[in-house]
Design goal:
Layout lengths: L2 E5 L2 E14 L6 E12 L11 H12 L5 E5 L7 E7 L2 E9 L4 E2 L15 E7 L5 H22 L2 E2 L2 E2 L2 E2 L3 E6 L12 H28 L3
Helix pairs in contact: 2-3
């Protein structure tokens, strides 16, 4: 499986080979080919109100020499990264997550976040099974479903009810390009993906909530 290396304020998830990666990342959204998914830890001071986030990110990616990577932004300290692996019928899934709820939301609602700090859930999933693009789309749906289930089970609440995510979540899923056409809940792919993602996000959520309860801040 892939390997994770922390070099603050960066973290690299090396997939081991070039893969098809699907995400809505700021720098390389959609279907792209990449060998690595990277996190960039940010503080409020990095992104003042008047900053052009796309330009800022482009500059820091260029300085890092990471133009080939899919890059995720997180305010969660990278030392809190959570990893989880699952194997079903020889298919292996490896989830890597940073989890925070400072801007938790319930789907179908919006909380006024003017001048608020932002936390987020950034999640990457590496799958060993070769998938068609359609199956990778289905895999993305399972990843998001597992993330949402974990968030709800963790019990974080907003003024509109239990959180289902945050307003700035980002997900990247990676697999070899292959012939497997289905990745739903009835498949080994779906089971492995769902289990690894659910475990990683739930553990990250519980840790974040515990930190806030004990210290008053994330």
């Amino acid at each position: 499986m892939g390997s994770v290396t922390l070099d603050s304020p960066w973290m690299e998830f090396d997939l081991g080979d070039e893969m098809q990666v699907l995400s809505w990342s700021l720098n390389r959204p959609g279907f792209v080919a990449a060998r690595r998914i990277m996190w960039r830890e940010v503080r409020n001071a990095d992104l003042p109100k008047d900053v052009d986030v796309d330009l800022w990110l482009s500059d820091v990616i260029r300085a890092k020499g990471a133009e080939d990577a899919v890059v995720l932004l997180t305010s969660r300290p990278l030392r809190h990264v959570i990893q989880s692996e699952a194997e079903v019928e020889g298919i292996r899934a490896h989830a890597v997550a940073t989890v925070g709820f400072s801007n938790g939301e319930r789907v179908g609602h919006r909380v006024d976040r003017t001048d608020a700090q932002f936390g987020t859930i950034n999640l990457a999933l590496h799958l060993t099974e070769g998938l068609t693009q359609a199956a990778l789309l289905e895999c993305m749906s399972i990843v998001v479903e597992a993330r949402t289930a974990a968030v709800m089970d963790a019990g974080h609440a907003t003024t509109n009810g239990p959180s289902t995510g945050t307003g700035t979540d980002c997900v990247a899923v990676a697999s070899p390009l292959g012939a497997t056409r289905y990745a739903g809940l009835h498949t080994a792919v779906g089971e492995a993906v769902g289990r690894s993602v659910y475990d990683a996000v739930l553990r990250g959520a519980v840790e974040w909530l515990k930190t806030v309860k004990e210290t008053g801040h994330a």
